[in-house]
Amino acid sequence: MGEWRGGLVVMVLAMVVMYEGLVVDVEGAGAWRVVTKNAGITAMHAAVAPVTGNVVLLHQTNNGPSNMTFPDGRCKYYPDDRFLPKDCFVHSVIIDPNSGVVRPLFFQTDTQCSSGQFLRDGTLGQTGGDREGTQITRTLPFKCMYVNPTDKICDWVESSQKMAANTRWYATNQLLPDGRQIVVGGRGSPSYEFVPPYTVPPPKYDMPFLNVTSFDGPDKTKNGPNNIYPYVYLLPSSGYLYIFANRDSIIFDYKNNVVIRSFPQIPGNPRNYPSGGSSVMLPLTWQNGFKNKVEVVVCGGATVTWVANNSMPQPYCSVSCGRIEVTKAGSDWAMENMDIPRCMGDMVLLPDTNVLIINGAQRGWQGWDNAAEPAKNPILYNPTKPAGQRFTTLDAPPSGTPRMYHSTANLLTDGSVMVAGSNTNEFYKFTNNNKYWPPPGRFFPTELSVETFTPPYAGLGDRPVILSSNATTVKFNSVLQIVFWDNISQNPSTDTFLFTLNPPAFSTHSFSHGQRLVSLQALKITTTSGTQNGKPGNMRTVDLQIPVYTTVLPPAYYMLWVVKNGNPSVSCLWIQTR
Ligand SMILES: *[C@@H]1O[C@H](CO)[C@@H](O)[C@H](O)[C@H]1NC(C)=O
Ligand SMILES: *[C@@H]1O[C@H](CO)[C@@H](O)[C@H](O)[C@H]1NC(C)=O
Ligand SMILES: *[C@@H]1O[C@H](CO)[C@@H](O)[C@H](O)[C@H]1NC(C)=O
Ligand SMILES: *[C@@H]1O[C@H](CO)[C@@H](O)[C@H](O)[C@H]1NC(C)=O
Ligand SMILES: *[C@@H]1O[C@H](CO)[C@@H](O)[C@H](O)[C@H]1NC(C)=O
């Protein structure tokens, strides 16, 4: 931190920082950056580690070689592996998104189509997968979130306590206020359970909602899942879950296994796997003590025909997005269209409360060999604008690398979004050497590259710098004081400030498990004008109210942002709630 000279002191009491009033004037196209051309593996799951900001990437076993072997010659032995009973290839890494340096991470059991959440102490909790991994729970300890950890070997730890469901893959996890993960649904599992369980052996709880929504298309005749990787959100104040599966959704009391409310079906196609839609719960705001309205947006989807037909082009994905107020009885979907059809995209909540929609295809659906026509341009969705004015297409050169099935998107600590993966093939495949399948136009090489996309925000001018806080761990219903620096605006009287928090989410299969964004009330802002490193600016001290409800910010690590006139701070501050 540089030299600081203070000057005039201005006190602004109870400054109201309005989410509704924020004008985000989106200009510019954003910018791409290559982190590495070869991370050694392709990412099927990705999560940003608390405090270090490094990113954990996870693929699968039972799928042949990756592009990297362990430098220390380690191998795993599993006689029933489909292709490599002796497997010396790396299937998980942690990557520094600034330098592109990767460190391989070792695990034993298959993680294909698994799920996860960061736990309250910063451990990455991770559950299920395919084959021998389907009932397994794993953790990656907080101390291992480095590319150069103190312990030379610092890897995934697999538990001997198996989960209750016979198959727990394509499930969705959500961190609960008591520190457990709820694991909801998955292929062949219309049930939910808790990790760690409340009792041993772990019970599972049947969920008829996931049974009745498990079919393809309106005729209900085909036996496809179409409701797996359900969209699950922990609601503030009530503590219930909102769960969306196929085209239906409910408010669910998981403590008593009771459906509190059912909503009408969303118009159009099914939205969950394999239809490849995406979803976010819109930002939760402090106004009205977090009892105010909560809205959910679902974008994209597909008609899944399950017909492998070389001579038929894949149908277009859904162009529509639906938005619904889930805190109101009797509410229905309000529909809007995106600029282009998209499935297998990812929706990422940005610190400024906009939503980035990135990755995906314009045709096809999830599963090997099914995607066609990449959706290369990201789009921004501004939830505060009126319907019809919410979408902006971003056209940063060069156009994005195709990232279709099995790709990921995660908000990084500098406000950019890291994209990784894309593998529409079984195995790592770099050339289409089978002239019959997949047909031309449906072959895309396995992506080992990792990139970032920096959204334009409000033109990326004047980004504040967070200098300090008086605590890194905060209790519920307490006050956190932070200090930040920003430039003197041309029109200081029109400056707006927003203080937002988000947990690092677990991104896989077009859904970021646990994703939420919360705006905090600023009780008091004190501004001191002066110079830092010889440059004029404002030093501001802000008292932020941490919410009363543990359901707003379940105990965990969060990224805290200061957003000035739509520009997020140059980096976030990590704080832990408890
Ligand atoms: C990874 O890919 C590079 C470039 O194609 C190749 O030279 C190298 O042999 C591969 N490594 C492994 C372990 O597959
Ligand atoms: C799921 O539905 C099928 C038929 O629709 C029924 O036979 C089965 O018992 C149901 N299972 C559960 C767990 O509800
Ligand atoms: C494949 O598509 C072509 C062209 O639409 C159609 O003529 C043919 O019947 C289809 N084959 C199958 C097996 O569905
Ligand atoms: C903030 O002010 C400094 C010094 O005047 C300037 O170099 C910098 O570009 C400004 N930052 C922005 C984002 O305007
Ligand atoms: C941080 O500052 C706030 C506001 O002054 C105060 O309420 C809180 O107790 C302080 N926290 C610590 C850990 O000192």
Automatic annotation (TrEMBL):
SUPFAM superfamilies, sorted: E set domains, Galactose oxidase, central domain
Boundaries of every Glyoxal oxidase N-terminal domain copy: 44-457
Source organism of the structure: Ceratodon purpureus
Entry-linked Pfam families: Glyoxal_oxid_N, GO-like_E_set
The keyword Signal belongs to this UniProt entry's keyword annotation: yes
Keyword field contains Signal: yes
InterPro entries recorded: Gal_Oxase/kelch_b-propeller, Gal_Oxidase_central_sf, Glyoxal_oxidase_N, GO-like_E_set, Ig-like_fold, Ig_E-set
Signal peptide annotation: 1-21
Galactose oxidase-like Early set domain sequence ranges: 463-571
Protein name stated in the entry: Galactose oxidase
Keyword entries, A-Z: Signal
